[in-house]
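Checklist before submission:
- one chain only
- standard amino acids only
- sequence pasted in full

Submission:
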Amino acid sequence: MSPAEFQPGRRRLLQGAALAAVSTALLPATARAAARPKAVDYPPAEWVPASPSNYTKSTRPNQYAIDHVVIHVTQETYQDALAIFQNPAKQVSAHYLVRSKDGHIAQCVRDKDVAWHAGNWDYNTRSIGIEHEGWVDKPEYFTDALYEQSALLTKSICSTYGIPMNREHIIGHVEVPGTDHTDPGPYWDWNKYLRMVNLL
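Returned file contents:
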């Protein structure tokens, strides 16, 4: 027999595809959800994608090592920050956004891609950016829920990419070379945050 004789005909291929589609449709909703591609890198997060015009596609950590987490404060509300990330004219994004009142997390850029958050291309390529709803001069936005959920997220990122959980590798936007930003500002409690990252 020739190799061509072993190849299934078009009709058989179509029948197989139809059977696969029917069998998938008959699966319970939970199984169908599990079969879908993973939309977020941190399972508790909600996927709220930034405009593709506001980040660079990549294959991190293959293309660039991930060795820092950069902590930001939005100077905007949670909803306004999401709208900015989704506006292709804004040219800005972050990987994650944490809401003040309850610590809810949105993932806006996949970890593998380069978010435009640090204002420094080298730091963008090698870091995960986490925005926090609030203002640098309004400490009431830095709620226990925000700190706790952000610390759990940072711990997960550090564990995933082998980032040391210390102040040399978990930095504020203000510490990025060349930045003119001051966030997270003087009211961000670094001692509390690092303690939570390491103990939660």
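Reviewer check: Confidence is low (pLDDT under 50) at residues 1-27, 29-37.
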